[in-house]
Automatic annotation (TrEMBL):
<dbReference type="GO" id="GO:0016987">
    <property type="term" value="F:sigma factor activity"/>
</dbReference>
<dbReference type="Pfam" id="PF04542">
    <property type="entry name" value="Sigma70_r2"/>
</dbReference>
<feature type="domain" description="RNA polymerase sigma-70 region 2">
    <location>
        <begin position="23"/>
        <end position="87"/>
    </location>
</feature>
<comment type="similarity">
    <text>Belongs to the sigma-70 factor family. ECF subfamily.</text>
</comment>
<dbReference type="InterPro" id="IPR013324">
    <property type="entry name" value="RNA_pol_sigma_r3/r4-like"/>
</dbReference>
<dbReference type="InterPro" id="IPR013249">
    <property type="entry name" value="RNA_pol_sigma70_r4_t2"/>
</dbReference>
<dbReference type="InterPro" id="IPR007627">
    <property type="entry name" value="RNA_pol_sigma70_r2"/>
</dbReference>
<dbReference type="InterPro" id="IPR039425">
    <property type="entry name" value="RNA_pol_sigma-70-like"/>
</dbReference>
<dbReference type="Pfam" id="PF08281">
    <property type="entry name" value="Sigma70_r4_2"/>
</dbReference>
<dbReference type="InterPro" id="IPR013325">
    <property type="entry name" value="RNA_pol_sigma_r2"/>
</dbReference>
<keyword id="KW-0804">Transcription</keyword>
<dbReference type="GO" id="GO:0003677">
    <property type="term" value="F:DNA binding"/>
</dbReference>
<dbReference type="GO" id="GO:0006352">
    <property type="term" value="P:DNA-templated transcription initiation"/>
</dbReference>
<keyword id="KW-0805">Transcription regulation</keyword>
<feature type="domain" description="RNA polymerase sigma factor 70 region 4 type 2">
    <location>
        <begin position="122"/>
        <end position="174"/>
    </location>
</feature>
<keyword id="KW-0731">Sigma factor</keyword>
<dbReference type="InterPro" id="IPR036388">
    <property type="entry name" value="WH-like_DNA-bd_sf"/>
</dbReference>
Length: 182
C-alpha cells in the first residue's frame, strides 16, 4: 500500500473516482470533526479515519443518497464509538495480568509498586511480541486498541467466532508463558 502526503492528510495512491468524491468533502468533515472533538489533532484523526472507513466501505454506499449525509453519519457514529470506548471501564490485559492476585484491601500504589507494575507490563508486552502472528494481532487489537470482537472480525476479515477462538488461545498461551517466567 503506497501513501502520499497531500499536505493535510495521507491518501492511498489510487486514481479512483469515489476517492476523489470523498476528498471533495474533506473540509466539511474536518469542520464537523473539530466541532465534535474540540481539538485540531483529534479532528484531523477523526476526519482521516472517517474518510478511510468510507473508502473501505465504498461498496455499501448507495449512490442515490447524499454522500455528505452518509459521511456525516459515519463520522458521528465513529466519534460516539470512540467516546464510548474511552468511557468504558475496561479490564485491560495489563490489569488482568498485574491484578491476577488482588489484595483484599484497596490502597493507592506506592512508587515502588507502580515501578514493579510497569516492569511487569513491559515483560508482558515482550511476551506478546513473541506470540505467533495470528494470536498477537487479536491480543493487540482487543486489549491495546479496545476493539470489539465484531470490529476485530471486520478489521482482519475473519469470522467473529475465529476471533474469539484466537483470543482465547492467545490468552492461554500468554498466561502459560508468563507463569513460567515467575
Amino acid at each position: 500500500m503506497v501513501f502520499k502526503d497531500t499536505g493535510k492528510f495521507l491518501w492511498k495512491s489510487v486514481g479512483d473516482e469515489f476517492l476523489e468524491r470523498l476528498q471533495q468533502h474533506q473540509r466539511y468533515l474536518f469542520h464537523l470533526a473539530l466541532r465534535l472533538t474540540g481539538n485540531t489533532e483529534d479532528a484531523k484523526d477523526l476526519t482521516q479515519e472517517t474518510l478511510w472507513q468510507a473508502h473501505r466501505k465504498s461498496d455499501k454506499y448507495v449512490y442515490e443518497k447524499s454522500l455528505k449525509a452518509w459521511l456525516r453519519t459515519m463520522m458521528t457514529n465513529r466519534f460516539r464509538d470512540q467516546k464510548r470506548k474511552k468511557s468504558l471501564n475496561m479490564v485491560t490485559l495489563d490489569d488482568a495480568l498485574i491484578q491476577s492476585d488482588p489484595s483484599p484491601t484497596t490502597h493507592t500504589s506506592s512508587v515502588e509498586e507502580q515501578v514493579e507494575q510497569k516492569i511487569l507490563l513491559e515483560k508482558v508486552k515482550k511476551e506478546i511480541d513473541k506470540l505467533p502472528e495470528i494470536y498477537r494481532r487479536v491480543i493487540i487489537l482487543r486489549h491495546f486498541h479496545g476493539l470489539s470482537y465484531a470490529e476485530i472480525s471486520e478489521e482482519l476479515s475473519i469470522p467473529e467466532g475465529t476471533v474469539k477462538t484466537q483470543l482465547f488461545r492467545a490468552r492461554k498461551l500468554l498466561k502459560e508463558r508468563m507463569s513460567h517466567k515467575f
